[in-house]
Amino acid sequence: MKLTRWLKRVALIAALVPAAGYLYEQLAARRARKGALPFGDSLTVNGRRVYVLREGQDQAAPTVVFLAGAGSLAVTWLSIMSFVRDFAPTIAYDRPGLGWSDPIPGSRPPHTIAVELRQLLDASGLPKPYILVGHSLGGLHALAFADLYPHEVVGLVLVDSSHPKMHLRSEIDWAAEQAGLKRMRRNARWGWWRVRAGLPGGNFAVLPRQVRTALRDIGPSGAETIHREVASIFKGLDLTHWPDLPTIVLTRTPAPYPSSRAWQELQADFARRFPRSQHRILSNAGHGIPHDAPREVIAAVRELVEMSRTT
To answer: Model-level pTM?
Structure first.
């Protein structure tokens, strides 16, 4: 009898914990979205609010557009933008459904996101042309934008960018990546991502306090959007005509295992495909180059800005 009562209690707790986590996540996400923006502002594009950071509006063109990777927000570019704003106008934004930007239905392939980005840039009032700085998944969005609007772009900085053909490399376990995203979406639904973001240590610990707080308070609610973006990552991205643009490819430090070698080869492929490119393999930098090596990103941006103003 005692064992039966104990098992019933265990079953009740097992049912209540996920329910409590789900309720916690829903209430916390609603509170965060209703709160005041800690910095930056928002623009209305097609009836939806899009969160943006704009710096250096008094500088001359080109405008430098920072595009974050999967799950990252505009605030992750804050420190780099604080330097670039001294010589160029800058903008970063939360893609729809991420951060403080309103959600949007449907699949999220790179060319769809590129069209939305152009609408945002038109609404921003910042001058053309653009230099696109894309990290990870944001690199594919930069490529899609340059593919659609080549005459509006004067340079690319690909920051350890995802590659359109990376899912074809056997060394890169894309199925495992997809499975990890499904776990992330499930965990975020029960509030675990939000709890983990508030704990000391891990990737969040290296970020400035205001950025860390922003990611903890608003980031988890975008897990569904992240899943849809990555699920559509290669949809329609067949770049048979790569734009002839000055391009700087920044790549993480190589590591001695097959997936890293495959990644390095894909990064080198970027450099081969762009006639006017430079490939810089960084030392002591992981995939998070915007945090590991911000000076290298700033230097690459400055070089392309100066090049565009002298040609």
So the answer is: 0.84
Quote the percentage of the chain above a pLDDT of 90: 44
- Contact in structure between 158 and 288 (CB atoms under 8 Å): no
List pLDDT tens digits, range 13-28.
Answer: 544 545 554 555 556 5
Number of other CB atoms surrounding residue 250 within 10 Å: 26
Non-local (6+) Cβ contacts of 221 within 8 A are 25, 29, 32, 33, 188
Distance in angstroms (rounded) separating the CA atoms of residues 290 and 311: 28
The residue written with tokens 């098992």 in the block is 7
pLDDT band for position 234 (cuts 50, 70, 90): confident
**What domains are there in the chain, each with its CATH number?**
39-161+171-310 (3.40.50.1820)
Decide: helix, strand or coil at residue 136: coil
pLDDT above 80 (res 195): no
Contact 121, 149 (CB under 8 A): no
Handedness of CA 122, 52, 134, 179 (dihedral sign): negative
pLDDT (0 to 100) of residue 199:
46
Distance of CA 131 to the CA centre of its chain: 16
Q: Determine the Cα–Cα distance for residues 292 and 310; give it in Å rounded to an integer.
A: 30
Nearest Cα to Cα of residue 73 among 106, 98, 46: 98
Measure Cα distances from 145 to 45, 111, 117, 273 in Å.
Answer: 17, 7, 8, 17
Enclosing H/E stretch for 6: helix 2-34
Residue with tokens 């604080």: 82
Residue at token pair 């789900």: 22
The confidence band for 185, taking pLDDT boundaries of 50, 70 and 90, is low
Longest dimension (CA), the chain: 85
Res. 33: pLDDT tops 80: no
Q: Are 305 and 90 in contact (CB under 8 A)?
A: no
Instruction: Give pLDDT, residue 14.
Output: 47
